[in-house]
């Protein structure tokens, strides 16, 4: 299926790559320091705001960006639109990296991280815990995503590995092929579960969430918006690939146009659903009150609406720049919805305040940089993109 | 890609079934079961009577001593006067007396864990570190705790506190002195209170005492016992003076249903017996399998996957 995917090749260590590594190293130093001094030493977290930006950005937004694998997977494998195949490998790689970073962030954030080994000990599972479901699903899904990346590694080995590697790849490939439907089905089920549960987490705090965000439909809204984010990230990656490798990779506007249509309708559906829910439950009045949360709500709605309309506009299907804008807006929309639910809407009690510390921001930026660096490294070495032969 | 009409229909049916399973599961969860939580037969708690409290903070000091916690060292200036006590519970302080003023009314309020009958913290905790254990007391088990702090997000009273500056942080909260470190047993705060403003005992006895006090001087009290039913009921309860609402004391308005019920209903309905996820998985696997096979056939028929070439 991905017979035409090839390693991009080219130099790995570029100035940009070094900048990324430097950012990642800064985060690494901070994390090392935190190991010896406690979570409070590099964060602005307090007992009132015990979850800061690491949760909604590092975990929930990184995995939202990674949800492209889920979104395109749904289109390709479930709705049987095989034409989207060329987008799958990049999306799965972004997913594997995004989810790994999300998992890493959780570990950095956990005060007693060593205690998480007992996540492997079912007798202690508390099946009432939404967080447990999220943790187990995300952990499994990280594994599933990397398994989905292995065909690329095997392709590479069978193409130009040593004869041992070639034989190994030849032996493994058919087995992987046979197992793939079951792996892919898992890759469809797990995000459905944990992306929605990432919203359910805040159902536990009914008295602390601002009514504009607190709804029994939180899980559904998180699931819906992870799809728009996923479609956004897939489109953005494909357009970027086309612009940094002119002549070698052609952004497939026909495919992206199809995705844009779906993404556009899902975005607008999200907005309509959000308003319907607010109206039916009688909370719509909060949208017009004077309170610092309200502008965030309208920003969220504005982003979802504009990205949705842009996705659907006729020109977006031919104009790369326009589609790229739509994709980035979709990512921002999902991100702000997540930050709103986790932080803006959360009331930590009278006088409680939270603004991310420099340390938290540097760790977030560093992890993001690490992700981009890993992506660049892997696409240069493994057959991920369907690039042309000619080397620039 | 060639795809027979039959396969297509079946695929849609499979996808539809999966979607329906998820769709039915969600709204059904929104219907909440209102049954009150059971009271453990040996349930113990505290009863705090705001009308008797003189705000001396002896309980705060006794609590810190009994549980070997460092006492507050920073002197704050409050309303122009130096003040030595913590202003809220924190990782070094499991209980504190607060003064609430509203207009010309004021009242003291003792803050500590309410020992909920259906606590949000125990529902949140991944590996059951927070659990109702002996006497229905909610205690923290260091071995099972990952330091995720979801209990802090979930607790409607903001009770669990986290040691932010420790590489080996603990969650700190009132455990009714279940693990006192000064060799004695029973609640230290109740033991030292000079006015019986805070007393400890079995929940039933505490309720009886509260009713007796209220019956003796009904005009003195707010007629409600906070924690008898609030949030499904607590083991530690409060009495307020007449004319003072419990929300004025900084307590949340929870209603009688445990605050975690909505989440639990949605979650448990969605995942009941793991049926919906299983159906979803099987449906997805069938769809993927069929689609991949159809695609392979199509590829073979065309002698390659020309169509896939971007
Ligand atoms: S008051 Fe908070 S910490 Fe105490 S039992 Fe209830 S939910 Fe748990
Ligand atoms: S911080 Fe510890 S006790 Fe609190 S919910 Fe997390 S694992 Fe449980
Ligand atoms: S019962 Fe013990 S731990 Fe709880 S507030 Fe009183 S003295 Fe402190």
What does this structure look like?
The complex is a heterodimer of chains A (392) and B (310). Chain A is mainly alpha-helical. Chain A has a single domain (2-389), classed as Formate dehydrogenase/DMSO reductase fold. Helices cover 68% and strands 0% of the residues of chain A. In chain A, α2 packs antiparallel against α10 (320-344), α4 crosses α5 and α5 packs antiparallel against α6 (163-200). Chain B is α+β, with helices and mostly antiparallel strands. Chain B is 33% helix and 14% strand. Chain B has 8 helices and 11 strands. Chain B has helices at residues 5-29, 58-66, 120-124, 150-154, 188-192, 203-216, 261-270, 275-302, and strands at 44-49, 76-78, 81-83, 96-102, 105-111, 130-132, 138-140, 161-162, 171-172, 198-202, 237-239. In chain B, β8 and β9 (171-172) form a beta hairpin. The model of chain B is unreliable at 1-32 and 304-310 (pLDDT under 50). The structure holds iron/sulfur cluster (3 copies). One iron/sulfur cluster is lined by residues 124-126, 129-130, 140, 145-151, 160, 171 of chain B.
Structural class of chain A: mainly alpha
What order do the SSEs of chain B take from the amino end to the carboxyl end, as H and E? HEHEEEEHEEHEEHEHEHH
- How big a fraction of the residues of chain A is strand? under 5%
If classified by CATH, what would the architecture of the domain at 44-252 in chain B be? 2-Layer Sandwich
Mean pLDDT of chain B: 86
Uncertain regions of chain A: pLDDT < 50 for 5+ in a row? none
Q: Between the first and last Cα atoms of chain B, what is the distance in angstroms?
A: 15 Å
Oligomer: heterodimer
Q: How much of the residues of chain B is beta strand, in percent? A: 5-15%
CATH hierarchy: architecture of chain A = Up-down Bundle
Instruction: Give the helix proportion of chain A (percent range).
Output: 55-70%
CATH class of the domain at 44-252 in chain B: Alpha Beta
Q: How many domain regions of chain A?
A: 1
How many β-strands of chain B, per DSSP? 11
Distance between the termini of chain A: 26 Å
The largest inter-chain interface, given as chain pair and residues per side, is: A-B, 78 and 77 residues
């Amino acid at each position: 299926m991905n017979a035409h995917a090839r390693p991009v090749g080219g130099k790995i260590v570029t100035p940009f790559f070094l900048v990324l590594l430097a950012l990642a190293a800064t985060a690494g130093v901070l994390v090392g320091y935190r190991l010896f001094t406690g979570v409070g030493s590099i964060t602005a977290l307090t007992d009132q705001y015990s979850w800061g930006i690491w949760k909604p950005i590092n975990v929930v937004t990184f995995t939202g960006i990674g949800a492209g694998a889920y979104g395109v997977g749904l289109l390709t494998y479930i709705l049987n639109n095989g034409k989207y195949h060329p987008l799958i490998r990049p999306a799965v790689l972004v997913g594997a990296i995004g989810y790994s970073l999300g998992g890493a962030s959780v570990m950095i954030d956990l005060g007693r991280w060593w205690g998480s080994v007992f996540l492997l000990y079912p007798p202690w599972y508390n099946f009432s815990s939404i967080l447990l479901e999220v943790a187990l699903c995300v952990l499994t899904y990280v594994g599933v995503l990397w398994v989905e990346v292995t065909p690329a590694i095997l392709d590479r080995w069978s193409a130009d590995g040593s004869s041992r590697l070639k034989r190994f790849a030849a032996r493994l490939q058919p087995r992987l092929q046979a197992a793939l439907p079951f792996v892919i089905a898992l890759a469809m089920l797990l995000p459905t579960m944990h992306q929605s549960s990432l919203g359910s987490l805040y159902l536990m705090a009914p008295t602390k969430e601002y009514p504009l965000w607190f709804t029994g439909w939180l899980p559904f809204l998180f699931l819906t918006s992870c799809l728009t984010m996923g479609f956004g990230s897939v489109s953005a990656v494909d357009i970027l690939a086309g612009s940094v490798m002119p002549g070698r990779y052609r952004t497939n506007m026909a495919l992206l146009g199809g995705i844009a249509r779906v993404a556009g309708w899902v975005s607008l559906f999200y907005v309509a659903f959000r308003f319907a829910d607010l109206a039916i439950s009688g909370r719509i009045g909060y949208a017009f009150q004077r309170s610092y949360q309200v502008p965030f709500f309208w920003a969220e709605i504005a982003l979802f609406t504009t990205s949705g309309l842009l996705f659907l506009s006729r020109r977006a299907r031919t104009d790369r720049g326009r589609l790229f804008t739509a994709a980035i807006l979709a990512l921002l929309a999902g991100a702000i919805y997540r930050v709103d639910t986790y932080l803006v809407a959360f009331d930590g009690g009278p006088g409680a305040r939270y603004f991310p510390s420099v340390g938290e921001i540097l760790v977030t930026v560093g992890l993001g940089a690490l992700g981009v660096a890993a992506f660049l490294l892997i696409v240069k070495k493994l057959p991920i993109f369907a690039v042309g032969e000619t080397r620039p | 890609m060639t795809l027979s009409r039959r396969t297509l229909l079946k695929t849609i049916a499979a996808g539809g079934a999966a979607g329906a399973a998820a769709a039915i599961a969600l709204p059904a969860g929104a219907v909440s079961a209102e049954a009150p939580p059971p009271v453990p037969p040996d349930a113990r708690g505290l009863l705090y009577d705001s009308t008797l409290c003189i705000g001396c903070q002896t309980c705060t000091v006794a609590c810190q001593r009994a549980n070997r916690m460092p006492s507050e060292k920073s002197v704050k200036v409050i309303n122009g006067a130096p003040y030595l006590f913590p202003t809220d519970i924190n990782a070094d302080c499991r209980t504190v007396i607060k003064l609430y003023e509203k207009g010309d009314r004021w009242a003291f309020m003792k803050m500590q864990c309410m020992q909920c009958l259906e606590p949000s913290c125990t529902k949140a905790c991944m590996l059951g570190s927070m659990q109702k254990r002996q006497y229905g007391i909610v205690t923290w088990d260091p071995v099972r705790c990952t330091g995720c702090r979801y209990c802090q997000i979930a607790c409607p009273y903001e009770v669990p506190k986290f040691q932010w500056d420790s590489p080996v942080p603990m969650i700190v909260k009132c455990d009714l002195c279940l693990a006192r470190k000064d060799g004695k047993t029973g609640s230290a705060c109740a033991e030292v209170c000079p006015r019986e403003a805070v007393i400890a005992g079995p929940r039933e006895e505490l309720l009886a005492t509260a009713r007796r006090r209220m019956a003796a001087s009904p005009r003195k009290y707010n007629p409600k016992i906070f924690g008898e039913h609030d949030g499904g009921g607590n083991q530690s309860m409060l009495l307020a003076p007449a004319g003072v609402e419990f929300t004025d004391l900084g307590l949340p308005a929870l209603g009688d249903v445990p605050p975690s019920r909505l989440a639990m209903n949605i979650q448990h309905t969605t995942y009941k017996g793991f049926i919906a996820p299983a159906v979803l998985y099987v449906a997805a696997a069938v769809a993927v399998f069929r689609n991949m096979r159809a695609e392979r056939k199509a590829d073979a028929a065309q002698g390659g996957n020309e169509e896939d070439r971007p």
